[in-house]
Amino acid sequence: MGQQRIILANGSRLVREMLNRVLVKDGQLQVVKEISDHHNLPSAIEKYDAEWVIVSLPNNQKVPAWVDEYMAEHPPVRFIAVSSDGSQVKIMWMESHEKNYDDLTLEDLIHILESKPSHAGARNSTEKEEARY
C-alpha cells in the first residue's frame, strides 16, 4: 500500500503542528500541505492529490458547512473533523456520509488514515472497515 497523502486544514497552528508530528512518525502517512484558511483547500486538494483532509471540529460539534461543498467537488477525498481536545472525531466521505467516533485512540486514527478504499464502491468498503471500531 502506498503512502496516504494528508492535508491539515486547521486554523490552529498548534493543532496542525501536533498532528504533523504524530502523523510523520508513521511511514504510510504523508502530510503534503498545511493550510490555515479553508478557502485554499480546493486548489491544495487538486495540487497534492490528497486522500485525506483533517479539519477542526468546532466547539458546537458540527462539521463546518464548507466541508459538504468540498466533498461534492472532490468525492474521492475523505475528511476527518477532530475536536480540539481529541474527544470527538467525525469521518466523512462521498456525499456527506459521516461516521462519529468517541474516545478514538491514536492507534485507531492512524489505522483509519492508512486505509484506502477503492474509489468505485468506496462507501461500502469504508463502512465495512470502520465497523471494527
Could you describe the 3D structure shown?
With 133 residues, the protein is α/β, with parallel strands linked by helices. The chain has a single domain (4-130), classed as Response regulator (Rossmann fold, 3-Layer(aba) Sandwich), CATH 3.40.50. Helices cover 35% and strands 28% of the residues. It has five helices and six strands; from the N terminus they run E-H-E-H-E-H-E-E-E-H-H. The protein has helices at 13-24, 41-48, 65-73, 106-114, 122-130, and strands at 4-9, 29-35, 52-57, 78-83, 88-93, 97-102. A six-stranded mixed sheet has the order 2-1-3-4-5-6, with helices on both faces. The longest helix is centred in the first third of the chain and has 12 residues, at 13-24. It is globular and about 30 Å long. It starts with a strand and ends with a helix. Residues 118-133 have low confidence and may be disordered.
Blueprint (SSEs and pairs):
Elements: E1 4-9, H1 13-24, E2 29-35, H2 41-48, E3 52-57, H3 65-73, E4 78-83, E5 88-93, E6 97-102, H4 106-114, H5 122-130
Parallel strand pairs: 1-2, 1-3, 3-4
Antiparallel strand pairs: 4-5, 5-6
Features:
133 residues; alpha/beta; 35% helix; Rossmann fold
Shape: globular
Low-confidence stretches: 118-133
By CATH, the superfamily comes out as: Response regulator
Main sheet strand line-up:
2-1-3-4-5-6
Main beta-sheet annotation: 6 strands, mixed
Order of helices and strands: EHEHEHEEEHH
CATH architecture: 3-Layer(aba) Sandwich
Average pLDDT metric: 79
Secondary structure class reads alpha/beta
> What is the CATH third-level topology name?
Rossmann fold
Task: Give the CATH level 1 class.
Answer: Alpha Beta
**End-to-end distance, in Å?**
21 Å
The domain tally reads: 1
Helical element count?
Answer: 5
